[in-house]
Write a structure and sequence with these properties.
The protein is an alpha+beta fold. 53% of the residues lie in helices and 14% in strands. The longest helix has 31 residues. The chain is elongated, with a radius of gyration of 33 Å. The chain starts with 6 loop residues before the first helix and ends in a 6-residue tail after the last strand.
Length: 439
């Protein structure tokens, strides 16, 4: 006999319903909680509905599963009649063949159709912009939620009975660090085309720095060994005064014997207290009486742990040591705070890192600039590697020697020229994008 005329439309409707429930489920678990919170604060019913549902994850997922299973049951019941008439072209086709073969063919076809049209395609589609699709379908979602909530609550109660779980549906966090990170990156992409730096961009950078702070290590923000301004503990006060005057620094490191044996540091304010002293009193003052203690930290130690140690022990400078106990560099509280909020203007900060665009696709940088920072801010494609962090380190990694001034390095479509070298330290480099029109 002919299948019910309503079978085929019912089959399509059940398949579409299953696709809807599957898509909404993946959109829900992929949604950015922070973005949903912001949408709710901006007003509008869709944003409020989405935020309401996101606060009830256990119940929402249960309603989606109940709805999806109901749709699949309807699809299974109707697929037999439709397959016989519309695919095999015979009536009661299961009687014309082996019952086992008929069931196998029906199951195989139904499984493929469900996997493609009710699982893979909707989940791929709704996963691309989960927050947007949740807002678009907010009205049918809230209707289905309350419609299927009674059977969903029964399912949840049974699951708790068998699994011994307690209801914690309302204790979930609104959003986490991953949501904030995704939100910041999406906003940065939207404002990336703006030529002028905006206050929002600065605030987003601070938020991004705060998220990255947990992974920041001492080695990432130290002043390297070859840039430490230091004096021997046996130096005279006059030499210390001259050092402060010439460098403009607020702190000078003091060592005994060599830089691997740092004993403390002297602050410029300590010399001001001696300004009124007589020459005789000054000559009798040893550097050891002006020393402030430091803390010693290993290179892999986290910046947030070092900051906590600074506060706990009331210290302001740390000596960073390598695995052999040698001095890798120094790190101040200001260095760590700058990783969070950016450069802090200081009356003693006289040397700024060079970053200059001297032509289209042609730049001049201090070799101390970090490669990933240059890539993100100037949209370059410099190779990044765990073996180095700075532009100077990148040049040394590829040349495997101390390059003389004028050395050129070709990296894919980018040419790097060393323009200034100070002893064993690369000071300045120029970068040229070869696909640009500049020369």
């Amino acid at each position: 006999m002919d299948p019910d005329p309503a079978s085929f439309p019912l089959l399509l409707a059940s398949l579409m319903a299953s696709a809807f429930f599957s898509g909404m489920e993946i959109a829900y678990v992929s949604a950015n909680r922070l973005q949903a919170e912001l949408d709710r604060n901006q007003g509008g019913l869709p944003g409020k509905i989405v935020e309401f549902l996101l606060r009830r994850p256990e119940r929402f997922i249960a309603t989606m599963l109940v709805g999806n299973n109901l749709a699949l049951v309807v699809f299974g019941l109707e697929s037999g009649a439709v397959l016989g008439k519309w695919i095999f072209g015979v009536e009661e086709w299961e009687l014309a063949t082996s019952p086992l073969l008929a069931l196998s063919v029906q199951t195989a076809i139904a499984t493929v159709v469900i996997l493609i049209t009710a699982e893979y395609l909707p989940k791929s589609f709704f996963h691309s912009a989960p927050n947007r699709w949740l807002r678009v379908f907010s009205a049918p979602l809230i209707f289905v939620y309350f419609l299927l909530l009674p059977p969903a609550l029964i399912v949840l109660a049974l699951s708790r009975l068998f699994l011994g779980r307690r209801e914690d549906d309302h204790t979930t966090d609104s959003f986490g660090a991953v949501d904030l990170d995704h939100f910041i990156r999406s906003v940065n992409e939207r404002i990336d085309g703006e030529e002028e730096e905006t206050p929002l961009e600065n605030e987003l950078q601070i938020l991004q720095n705060a998220l990255d702070f947990s992974t920041l290590k001492a080695r990432d923000c130290l002043v390297p060994r070859n840039e430490i301004v230091a004096l021997d503990a046996g130096s005279e006060l006059a030499e210390l005064e001259r050092c402060f005057s010439e460098t403009g620094l607020s702190k000078v490191v003091i060592y005994r014997g060599d830089i691997d044996h740092i004993v403390g540091y002297v602050h410029s304010k300590d010399l001001l207290r001696k300004a009124s002293s007589t020459d005789e009193e000054k000559s009798g003052t040893a550097l050891s009486s002006l020393l402030h203690p430091t803390i010693i930290v290993p290179e892999p130690m986290g910046a947030q742990d070092i900051l906590a140690e600074f506060i706990r022990r009331k210290r302001h400078l740390a000596v960073v040591v390598d695995e052999y106990g040698g001095t890798s560099g120094i790190l101040t509280m200001e260095d760590i705070v700058e990783e969070l909020i950016g450069d802090i203007e200081d009356e003693h900060d006289t040397e700024a890192l060079v970053e200059m665009e001297i032509g289209e696709g042609h730049y001049r940088f201090s070799a101390r600039h970090e490669v990933d920072d240059i890539n993100s801010r100037f949209h370059l494609a410099l190779p990044e590697n765990e073996a180095y962090e700075t532009l100077g380190g990148m040049v040394l990694f590829h040349t495997e020697e101390i390059p003389p001034e004028g050395t050129r390095l070709q990296l894919d479509r980018i040419t790097i020229q060393v323009t200034r070298v100070d002893g064993a330290r690369i000071v300045l480099v120029e970068i040229l994008q070869n696909d640009s029109e500049s020369t």
